[in-house]
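Narrative summary of target 7.
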Amino acid sequence: MSCLKCLKYTMCVVNFIFFICGAAVFGLGIYLMTISRFSSLLPSLQAMNIANTLFITGIIITCVSFLGFLGALKENRCLLISFFVLLFILMLAELAAACLLLMYESQIETFISTDLKKGLETSIKTRKSHNYTIEDDWDKVQKTFHCCGITNYTDWKPNIPESCNIHRNQTQYWSEGCFTLLTNSFENNLLNTGIGVIVVCIIEVLGMCFSMTLFCHISRSGLGYK
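Modeled conformation, tokenized:
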């Protein structure tokens, strides 16, 4: 019984931490929506700009972790099995995405590169036709990762934005392009990325095991929601 209590409160604490993290991501997404100009890096996925991506990710994390927290705290079988099913679906989706990335790596890289060029051209046109004072997704990415354009700053042609400047109000630009930086970083940290995916899957498997163990105990003892 003491082990099950430990299991119950461990689930509560871990899911509460994930709930707080999810709420923070959700809040950041809403904040970016209020200050950002909606300009997706990938026109083919127009709705999936940075703000929307953080918003949706935050909702998923908070909903799943809330189910796990409340199900463990209240010893509710319905909530626990819902938590188990959602975690299982998320794990399958992550594994499917990883397999597709490995199988179609070159095609995906070509698609992203082509779509980024379209997104950059759209951003250039927008900057020309409007009094551009609000940062878009390109500005955020370039400032965060210290890169400029897709392959280098010449992708912007004569319209190089201020977010490419190494120092503010100077004309010295980041030499490396954002897509080049991303692909090089991914290749150099392939092992770390794989370890990260494995760790996430292990956490999800442990969450499923804990919830199912608690579910079975509640079912045998006749407690919780029937």
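The mean pLDDT is 84.
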